[in-house]
Design brief:
This is Amidohydrolase-related domain-containing protein. InterPro entries: Amidohydro-rel, Metal_Hydrolase, Metallo-hydrolase_Enzymes. Residues 63-415 form the Amidohydrolase-related domain. This protein is an alpha/beta fold and 475 residues long. Helix content is 32%, strand content 20%. The protein has 15 helices and 16 strands. α5 packs parallel to α6 (246-255). The protein is globular, with a radius of gyration of 22 Å. The two termini are 20 Å apart.
Length: 475
């Protein structure tokens, strides 16, 4: 596990939203009674010595709000990297195969295995710059409470480097199928554990629309009763003939009085690929309902999974050049309809998503191409969607948008250096937020501060030393 040491000052850094040639000192305050609540006490100009001529500001590190996973599966990560699951590698790539292979994999889950693979996920995430994650752990007749118990251990193990917000998650049906009663009973037990902050279900796996709606109503009732956040995997299809359950979710949340009975608790809706078939009128109506009701609903697009999995029901019969895919157009949802939307990694290294890794900055980069959003402002918005907006969407404190650092803000920071990643003695400087999104540097170029404490990585001292004038002063 990574070590963390308290930072007193970040001396000589660049900050988003300030003039490009300006440099700053960030002074971090650590309350004596609680060293885990480091905040930015002051931001003051830095004037570097110039014994060798003009200062090149772009050679100094850029400091941004840290990254956030708004939606990631902790227990199913890196199944394809573990030899005991070698017989469960994809052969067709279909959604039904992924459901089947994942069920077979879950039958083999053990606590040591879950802690090992979950540790890989958290470590790689933290090294990428993640300081908060909403992590799904499954509860059902196959795994009982094993995944949840492993998640609780990982949450404790990594508490000094990352906040792990656990979702007690029903991937399997709780109102249909032979195991519905046991699955629901296990969920009723698990969601009452104090370490569980979010209730999650998958209405679309139920056998009928009626069962799916009952699933939704049960989850809303329990979230209100227990004061938990709510998270649905919803409308994961591209079938225009299927009823979109989003309407039932919105109307039921409003009818049950969420805003008054669950103050401060949020609702997240994941995937929702069916909504990509909506007309402009439907989008406008949906946005108006959410806004008029004042509902704290956020959407999370999961493009690495969606473009691999979400396809029309008859796609296998289509010619090879006609294989459409769907994922929520997050920038349009924000700018055109005023909805709250973010993007997340979802799965890593399993049959649902066998490609990609747990780096949210690379996901923001992918978004540039998927959404055809190539301006600097677009890149900054996409960074927000895996940072400040994502953090706010899962109900954590801090700014809900923007990348500028502020005094009294929690010191969860990503420090991006311009270093030689080639090993050939050449370093190409990235000058703007957009350049870091368009072409994300490797983890060797990143340092991470969690609550004002520097997560120490082997090359941290070398990176700081290679940046002229930059000093990281530790308590």
């Amino acid at each position: 596990m990574l070590e963390a040491k308290s930072i007193r000052t970040l001396k000589g850094v660049r900050i988003a939203g300030t003039p490009p040639d300006s440099l700053w000192n960030l002074n971090i305050k650590h309350p004596e009674e609680d060293d885990s609540k480091g905040i930015i006490e002051s931001i003051i100009p830095y004037s570097p010595p110039t014994p060798h001529g003009e200062v090149v500001a772009s050679s100094y590190p850029l400091v941004l709000p840290a990254l956030t996973h708004p939606h990631i599966h902790l227990d199913k990560a890196f199944v394809h990297c573990a030899p005991e699951y070698a017989d469960l590698l994809p052969s067709t790539g279909s959604f039904q195969e992924a459901l089947s292979y994942t069920s077979q994999a879950k039958a083999k889950f053990t606590t040591p295995d879950l802690l090992r693979r979950g540790g890989w996920l958290v470590a790689e995430s933290v090294a990428s710059g993640v300081t908060a994650m909403r992590a799904f752990v499954e509860v059902d007749n196959a795994v009982q409470l094993t995944c949840l118990e492993a998640g609780i251990k990982l949450k404790e193990t990594w508490k000094d480097s990352c906040y792990v917000q656990l979702v007690c998650f029903a991937q399997d049906p709780i109102f249909s199928g032979p195991h519905r009663d046991e699955n629901r009973r296990l969920m009723e037990t698990a969601i009452r554990k104090p370490e569980v902050e979010v209730i999650g279900t998958t209405p679309y796996v139920e056998a009928t629309i009626s069962d799916a709606k009952q699933n939704i109503e049960w989850a809303i009732d329990r979230a209100i009763e227990l004061g938990k956040h709510l998270d649905f995997h919803l409308d994961y299809n591209l079938d225009g003939d299927k009823e979109a359950l989003i309407w039932h979710v919105v109307s039921t949340i409003h009818a049950k009085g969420w805003t008054t009975k669950a103050p401060g608790k949020r609702v997240m809706l994941g995937h929702c690929t069916r909504l990509t078939l909506f007309s402009d009128e439907e989008w406008t109506r949906l946005a108006s309902l959410i806004q008029d009701y004042g509902l704290p609903i956020s959407f999370v697009g999961l493009p690495t999974s969606d473009i691999y999995m979400a396809s029309p029901p008859d796609v296998s019969a289509s010619p090879p050049q006609v294989k459409p895919r769907g994922t929520l157009h997050v920038p349009d949802m924000i700018r055109k309809y005023g909805l709250d939307a973010v993007i997340g990694v979802n799965n890593v290294g399993n049959a649902f998503t066998p490609w990609g890794g747990p780096d949210p900055l690379s996901l923001a980069c992918l978004g540039v191409g998927i959404y055809q959003r190539g301006t600097q402002a677009d890149a900054e918005l996409l960074y927000e969607c895996v940072s400040t907006r994502a953090r706010a969407a899962i109900g954590l404190d801090g700014p809900s948008s923007g990348l500028s650092l502020q005094e009294r803000q929690r010191a969860d920071l990503l420090i991006l250096y311009n270093v030689d990643e080639t090993g050939l003695g050449i370093s190409r400087a990235r000058h703007t937020v957009a350049e870091f999104v368009w072409d994300p540097p490797g983890r060797i170029s990143r340092d991470v501060a969690y609550t004002g404490r520097l997560v120490i990585k082997p090359f941290a001292a070398d990176r700081a030393a290679s940046s002229p004038g930059t000093t990281v002063l530790l308590v």
